[in-house]
C-alpha cells in the first residue's frame, strides 16, 4: 500500500544516512574474494569426460571389475581359514597396466606388522592371574596371510612383492585397455578372537558350551581399486581407515563342520543338499510370510546342536553378482530366522542369525528392523537390488558387507536389557543394513572420504529410526520419538563449539587425530538433515538425493559428484553451505544484537536533527516530511498515539489522496522496529524468527541465508506493524545448530544453566 | 597426488557406530557469584567400567550410575581422578550428582566458594585408568572469556591462564 511504501522509504533514507556519513579511517588491504557465497571453483576439480559438472558419470566414465572364484575351508578346531581363489581382473580403463595391487588386510595382524607398534602400551597395577599370563606370558598372535602361491592361468608362478598389507603382482605382459587377466592365489591364515583382540571380524568363544561363533570378512586377498581419481588406491591398511573395492561377481564354496549354520553374501546354490526337509519347509514358508519372522532353526535346535561337535563337513556354495566384497558367518550355535519383504515388485528376504545369548532381544527385533530398514532406505534412494539382507549377532561389533552385516546388542545373562542396549541394537542394525546402499552399492572410497558412506548413511539412519518409531509405537513406548543420537541440529552443537584448534573439517584428511566420530558420522548427517528440513525443504532435497543415489548406483562417486548433483537437481545454490559445513570448522551462532523501536513523531527526531546540523539545514527550509523518532527519545510520551495524530502532514496527505472507503480500510503502522541481527559464528544460515505480538499472535519469518551475502557480521531488518512486538525469538525450533542460544531472544531471557537446573533438582 | 599428503583418518573410522574414540568433555564455569561449576560429560559405558573396575567381579551388563547406591563410588572416583589447584592449593570438589542424556552421563561438581587466586591448575585424569588414548577436553569460561585445553595421559596437569 502506498502509505507503507512512503514510510518505509523515508525510514530507510533517514536511518541509512548515518552509515553513509562514516568515513573510512584506514586504507584497506587488497581484497581477494573471501565472500562466503563464492562458488567452489577453486576447491572442486575441473569437470571432465569422466565426471560431469552436473555430478553424474561422464561419457568416458569407467570402472574396473574383479571376479572371484574361491574354495574356502574353515578349520574350527584350529581357528584357521584355508583358501584358493582365481581372480579375473578386467581392465576397463583407457590405460595399459604393468602391475596390479592386491589388498592383504589380514597382514595388519602379522607378528612383525608395523601397525602393532603404532599404538601406545600401558601397564595396569593389578591383574587377575589369567590376565597376567595372557598379557606377559603368551606368544604374540600369529596372524596375517600366509601366501603359498601366486600363479597365472597356466599355473606358472607370477612375480609378486608384499609390502605389509599390499601385494604388487607384476604382470607377465602388459594388460592392455579392455583386456582381462586371470591369476590364482593359495593362502591360509589364523582367525583372531575379535572380542579380546581387535578387529571387524574373527571369532568369539563361548566358554560355557565351548563353541565359537565366526564372523568372517577380509579373509581373502582382494583387488585394490584403480581409477582416474587416485590411480591405484594402494594405501596401507592400518586397521582404522576402511576400504576401497571394485565390483565383480563372486563364486564361493565354503566348507565348514556339517552341524554349522552358515549364511553369506550371495545366493545359496545347493540349498537342497544342505537343508533338512524341515528346514526346506520352513524356508518355503518364510518366503511367503511378510508379517513376522519364521524360524528356520529354533533356539531349542541350536542348543542341541551346541553339543554336537561334528567331525563331518559340508560345503555351502554361493553366487553373488555385482558386489564389492564377500563375508560370511558360521556357527553351530546359530538360531536362524527369515521373513519376506516387498520391495518394489520383488521380494527380498530379511534374515537374522544369532546365538541364544542374543535372546530375547534378537528374536523380537532383529529381522523386523532389517525389514523396515530395507523399506525406508529403498524409499529414499532406490529399491534394494539384492535378494536378501542378513543381520548377524556379534559382540561389540558394528560392521557391514554386501547382504550381510555384524551387529552388537546382547542382553544380560538373565535376559534383561536396558533401553540403551535395545535402542543401541536397533540403531546399529539400521545403520549396518543401510551400508548396503552406502558404500556397498553407491561405492565411494572409504579410505579417502569416510563421511561419504558414514555421514550419508547416518542421515538416512536417522530418517529410518524416526519412521520406525512412528510406525511401531510399541517398540519405543513410552517414548514418543525414537531416541536418535545423531541427526537433529541441536545435537551437533556441542561438537561444533569445541575450540577450533581441536577441530578439522569434514573435507580434509588431517594427520591431526583430534578428528572425532562426530566429524564423519554426526556432523555430515546433521548437515544433510539441516539441508533437508531447513534450507532446501523435503521435496527438493529428497528428489536430489534420489537422483544422486540412482546416478551412482553400482558406480564409484567422489564427494564432488554428490555436491554437484544436489545443486544440479534442485536449483538451490549450495556452494556456501558445502563450503561452511564441509570445508571449514566454523560453527553457527546468530543473535539479536539490538532492537530499536521507532514511532511517527510530530517533529524531527534526534537523529534527524543531527543530520540537519551536519548539513546546515535550518528547520524552516525542510521539505514537508514524515518524521520517525527512536522511542528512547520520546520525551513527550507520544509514541503510543496514532501516527495520523502525531503527523498532521501525513493525515492531510491521506485525506487528499485516498477515497473515503480506502481510508476506512487503511492500516496505519504504529510500530517500526529496526532489528539488528549479528553473527558471532562463522557459518552462514538463514535467520528464522518468531515475532510475537501483544495480541498473542506469532509471525514466523525466514530470511534466506543470502541475507548475509554483503555483510557477514550483521544485518538489519525492518518490521512494521500496528501491533506491538513483545518478544522476538531466533531459531525457535532449533534448526540451525546454533551453539549459543543465550543471544537468541529479545528481550534477553535469563535462562538457568544446565548446572543450576540440575543442582536445584537435587538439592531443592 | 593429494593422498600422499593426507594420512588416514582417525581413531574411529570403522563402521562401528559405537564410539571407538575415547573422549570426555568438561566445562569449568567460573560464575559471577564466585563459584566454580564443573559439568563433565562421559560415555556411559566407559564410566560404568571405570566405576565397576577390573578389581570387582565381572558384572554382566552396564551399571545404571544414576542410582543412589553408586553415589559414593562415583564421588571417590572423581576425588581420585579430578584435581583443581588454586595457587598450588588443592581444593575439594563437591560432587552433586549425575544424570543420563542419550549415551552420556552429565556429571556435576562444584567449588562453592572460590578463593582469590592468580594461578589455576587442572589435572583431569578421568578415564585414564581405562584407556591410555583417552583425551579429556576442558573448556574454561571466566569473565566472559572462553578457552579450551586437552588433557592426555602423558600430559594431564594443565596450567590455565584466563
Query: Kindly state the mean pLDDT of chain B as a whole number?
Result: 78
Using only CA atoms, what is the Rg of chain B?
Answer: 17 Å
Rg of Cα set of chain A: 33 Å
What is the general shape of chain B?
globular
Q: Provide the structure class of chain B.
A: mainly beta
Q: List the uncertain runs of chain B.
A: 1-19
Helix % of chain A is 25-40%
Question: How many distinct domains of chain B?
Answer: 1
Shape of chain A: elongated
Please give the most extensive interface between any two protein chains, plus how many residues each contributes: A-B, 70 and 48 residues
Assembly classification: heterodimer
Kindly report the name of the CATH homologous superfamily of the largest domain in chain A.
Answer: tricorn interacting facor f3 domain
Instruction: Give the number of helices of chain A.
Output: 20
Beta-strand share of residues of chain B: 35-45%
Structure summary, number of beta strands of chain B: 10
Measured as a percent range, the helix fraction of chain B is: 10-25%
The structural domain count of chain A equals 2
Mind telling me the CATH class of the largest domain in chain A? Answer: Mainly Beta
What is the typical, i.e. mean, pLDDT of chain A?
90
Q: What profile does the largest beta sheet of chain B have?
A: 6 strands, mixed
Remind me, CATH topology of the largest domain in chain A?
A: Immunoglobulin-like
Structural overview:
- The complex is a heterodimer of chains A (764) and B (162).
- With 764 residues, chain A is of the alpha+beta class.
- Chain A has 20 helices and 31 strands.
- In chain A, the strands form seven sheets. In chain A, strands 4-7-2-1-13-17-15 form a seven-stranded mixed sheet, with no helix packed on it.
- Chain A is elongated and about 110 Å long.
- Chain B is mainly β.
- Chain B has one domain (21-160).
- Helix content of chain B is 15%, strand content 40%.
- Chain B has helices spanning 2-5, 44-52, 71-81; strands spanning 23-30, 36-43, 82-86, 89-91, 94-101, 104-111, 120-124, 135-142, 145-152, 157-160.
- In chain B, the strands form two sheets. In chain B, strands 5-6-2-1-8-9 form a six-stranded mixed sheet. A four-stranded antiparallel sheet of chain B has the order 4-3-7-10.
- Residues 1-19 of chain B have low confidence and may be disordered.
- Chains A and B meet through strand 22, helix 7, helix 9, helix 12 and helix 20 of A and strand 1, strand 2, strand 5, strand 6 and strand 8 of B.
